[in-house]
């Protein structure tokens, strides 16, 4: 290890707190799932989904990705989405729904963008055959 190697990124829960912590994230995920089941561009993808598990996993993942005190222990994004034929248009529809619910809940745009920036790299594992 080089003595000048960078220290690990400090745990920063600023995004988690700006999302409203655990309660805020639970509300965002509940609203998101409500919007998704009404969205005919993507709701068919969730026809057979275990929504209770999905809700729990999304809450865990948003908590962990935003720096909150959670560790996501669900499937990898590749495992969860492989074989579903998810398109970039469907991915973008989900992101649009997430933005809509954060907007409705008054999440500051800067916070929205910081969360989205941490989810965007998952695109390659979610979209595919
Ligand atoms: C950044 C974007 C996305 C994230 C962060 C995400 C996150 C997740 C998570 C955490 C799970 C649960 C994995 C588990 O059960 O262990 C999951 C499952 C799933 N996701 Fe996604 N997802 C994304 C995009 C999408 C898109 C665009 C679609 C379809 C339009 C989709 C459809 C599904 C389906 C159908 C399941 C399985 C639900 C079940 O059978 O229980 N996801 N996703």
Automatic annotation (TrEMBL):
Keywords: Heme, Iron, Metal-binding, Signal, Transport. This is Group 1 truncated hemoglobin. The lineage of its organism: Bacteria, Pseudomonadati, Pseudomonadota, Gammaproteobacteria, Lysobacterales.
